[in-house]
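Task: sequence in, structure out. Protein: Zinc carboxypeptidase.
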Amino acid sequence: MITSSWLFFCLLPCILGGTDSNTASEWEDYHDHYALIDKLLEITKKCPQISTLYKIGQSVEGRELVVIHFSTTPSDHVALKPEMKYVGNIHGNEPLGRELLIRLADYLCDAAIKEDKEVLQLINSTSIHILPTMNPDGFNRALNTNPADRAWLTGRGNANEVDLNRDFPELDEIFYELEKLKVPRYDHLMDLFIDDKERQPETVAVGRWALSLPFVLSASLHEGDLVANYPFDSSIQKGISAYSASPDDGTFRWLARTYASNHAHMAKNDHPPCDGTSEDAFARQGGITNGAKWYSVSGGMQDFNYLATNAMEITLELSCEKMPDGKLLPQFWNDNKKSLLEYMFAIHSGIKGLITNAITGEPISNAVVWIRNGSNPMPIRHPVTSWLLGDYYRILPPGQYEVIVDADGYTTTSRNVTVTNKVRDSAMVVNFSLQPIFEEHPSVGFLHDP
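Result:
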């Protein structure tokens, strides 16, 4: 059970009106901050057995950053039950993701009540965290600006006018420098990061949240184009747009395609490109792009997740227009509903398992799990680590792999596996029991003749 008091601070229930959550008019306008909180509380009131609310912090102006959590064991991390998150509205003037995530939460609850097989399968097998808004202050500014006076950047930043998607620790530079120096360190790079920048409270809250749970999969919802963007976002050629592949480039492309191919239009050449990206022709690329090839971003949340945690995150651009008319929101929901669900199911791809002490059966945390792909002699340069319960998770597309587990004080162990991803609600379970290394101590002198 997670015990961090700042994390699972449950919000007090309130008396709510009898709004019909399925009325069309409710979904044809943007929820202000109070309406958002009321709606999330309404959902947890309808589905108390599978949902709970917690806050992870506050914005500059004191608005709570509230997460709704869906699980059969709310507030508990369960071994072998992977954690995923959706984050919306990091840019205040991009609230489409905010509305889609509110509606997703409402849909999960209503579908569970109706015993929808797909949703019950998802909730029974997955711990789902939804943060509809990371930037409530910026959204409030955009919402309360007359549309005729709303510029392209109005409300993009937080109350201090800081772009939160440029405010995370820049770990890419460390990664690229280590690669250049051939230093074999590829992940969990926060302990190598040093700077004196004062970060925004929203960034700190989300960064701590990302590090506080063993998240496996994540996505951030944006507006400004129609494409699924994958790491790296920060270019290997500093300041220059250039394809910058992460060690998991193939897996990230597969994840991005999972969202794009299930979207009503993203991967189809049935719509004109957005202004400014006609040369990119994202639809003809299958609706996906490497972030740094599009344009380089330093201090982004996507790369932070990948280089600081075990989580794989992509960025979803869901509309050419920022803050589209509320009357269009139901259509956006229809366009994205299948993608949002299928992307969550992607968390059950690859392998997962428990790493334990072969003698005592106790879980081993911080064991390092390396993956070697097929005939490639070198492992993928991005290991994951086991959590407090000894559980680990590694998203992988179908293929032949060698799994190598290393932990201090134990013998290194490996296994060959064939990943098929044919089971929709569970990754392949590959457990490891590691033998402790017993050091030979010098003989005690008084047991021997002088």
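Confidence is low (pLDDT under 50) at residues 1-21, 441-450.
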